[in-house]
Design a protein that fits this description.
By secondary structure, the chain is mainly beta. It is 8% helix and 41% strand. The longest helix is centred in the first third of the chain and has 23 residues.
């Protein structure tokens, strides 16, 4: 076989040409420069933005918006720096800081930008108010504006009236419940609002007219009135004889004896109340009260009969139930004050107070609001004590004993008062009967702490003129 060598050479020449093209395309291609590299002719441009962190307004998150740069230097304006591309920075104090960003490309070219960053809590208006009724006029409400970060205000009082005052007062036409709104606005037109329900009503409630009265000690026609009204701030008196007064607690002289209807009108901002009482004007004759068996000597034979007027058997039964069985009635003693063969009251002592306690008890009729003096004689040894109490009326319940709310007056007779000498000593004390027309003279002693019997005799109750 004969080979055409000329054709063979032409084939190899074609293959070699294709190989050169492939080598040229893949092996001889020049690499393009990356952005910011020495081969990039675009200069860097520094730029950034920022915003406070949602959880902390002093923590600022920066976003790097620079172009044609590969490295960065941040200066936060408070002495701190960083090369982080997108940093976050925490400021320690509020203020204005100049933040700078330097951007550099691969050739070393730089660009710098700066902006002021204000670190300050975002202040939005906060509406707030309190209120209270004006003294003496409950329909006028004084409002106190407690809003923050606001420059403009609008009040809606809930009754169709409005105000742009900072701290207004408003008078309502009638009692009722009103929803009051306050709208607060700042310079940026940010707004906030708040409402309160305001109840306009008389805090005192309706007035209640009440009064008492008493005649002057030196002139029975001069009556002193004591105003005991509630929930009122003004008063009108009509004394029934053409006289009147607007004083709270007046005194008034009637010129003629008789019975007068005295009217008091108690008034407040809401309404009024009226009380009328009939008052009799007449000269009062004071009567000396009578103490039954004052010297314990009505019966010189049966000594125990002399204590009947000085005891209360119902009270003794109550004491048995309350304290346990005891001997409560006073004793009779022959050691009387005058030594004429009569008797005197006696209270022994003992270690067991429940058994040894005794007392003298007598109800006496008196006149109300009269000053009295109780006179008697006491005999007891040193260290003994006698107690005399005046109660505001009769009682059968032993729990009333020593109840201060029922005691009109009391007196103690002992070493300090000079009544524990072993001999009879005159004793007395003064009291006023108050509103009572009967009293109880109640006598007891230091039954547990004494050392001898306490004796008393010859009682007398007189009127102090």
């Amino acid at each position: 076989m004969k080979i055409n060598r000329k054709y063979k050479l032409n084939v190899w020449a074609g293959l070699l040409a294709v190989l050169c093209v492939i080598i040229t395309f893949y092996g001889c291609k020049e690499d393009l420069p990356e952005e910011g590299s020495l081969g990039d002719d675009t200069p860097p441009e520094a730029d950034f933005s920022y915003e406070p962190d949602g959880s902390d307004y002093q923590l600022i998150n920066f976003t790097n918006l620079s172009i044609s740069a590969i490295s960065y230097v941040w200066d936060f304006g408070d002495g701190d720096t960083t090369s982080v591309e997108h940093p976050s920075h925490k400021y320690s104090a509020d203020g204005t800081y100049t933040v700078s960003l330097l951007a550099m490309d691969g050739k070393g070219d730089t660009d710098t930008t700066s902006m002021d960053v204000v670190i300050m809590m975002n202040t939005v208006p906060e509406a707030g108010f309190t209120y209270e009724a004006q003294a003496g006029d409950f329909k006028t409400i004084n409002f106190t504006n407690n809003s923050k970060n606001a420059t403009k205000y609008l009040w809606d009082f809930g009754d169709g009236n409005k105000s742009v005052e900072i701290t207004p007062s408003h008078t309502y036409a009638s009692e009722g419940t009103y929803t009051v709104w306050l709208f607060a606005e700042d310079a940026d037109e940010d707004k906030d609002s708040i409402s309160h329900v305001v109840v306009v009503t008389d805090p005192l409630g309706p007035p209640v007219a009440a009064y008492s009265y008493e005649a002057d000690a030196g002139n029975y026609q001069l009556i002193h009135f004591t105003n005991a009204s509630a929930n009122a701030d003004s008063y009108e008196w009509d004394f029934g004889d053409g006289g009147s007064s607007t004083d709270e607690s007046p005194s008034y002289t009637f010129t003629v004896d008789g019975t007068y209807d005295v009217r008091l009108i108690a008034i407040n901002a809401s309404t009024k109340d009226t009380l009328t009482q009939s008052i009799e004007i007449k000269d009062r004759v004071l009567i000396t009260p009578e103490i039954a068996n004052p010297s314990f000597s009505k019966d010189l034979v049966d000594k125990n009969a002399n204590r009947d007027e000085w005891r209360n058997t119902a009270l003794e039964t109550s004491a048995d139930a309350l304290f346990g069985n005891g001997t409560w009635v006073i004793q009779m003693s022959s050691s009387d004050n005058t030594g004429d063969g009569g008797w005197c009251g006696a209270l022994p002592f003992g270690a067991d107070p429940l058994v040894s306690r005794r007392w003298a008890y007598q109800v006496v009729t008196v006149q109300d609001n009269v000053d009295y003096t109780l006179n008697f004689f006491v005999r007891q040894d040193a260290g003994n004590t006698l107690y005399v109490d005046i109660y505001d009326g009769a009682f059968d319940d032993a729990s009333v004993i020593d109840d201060a709310s029922r005691i009109v007056a009391s007196e103690t007779f002992d070493d300090a008062s000079g009544h524990s000498t072993g001999s009879y000593v005159a004793a007395s004390f003064n009291f006023n009967s108050g509103d009572n027309t009967e009293i109880v003279i109640f006598i007891t002693n230091d039954y547990a702490g004494g050392n001898n019997t306490s004796r008393f005799d010859d009682f007398e109750l007189i009127v102090n003129q």
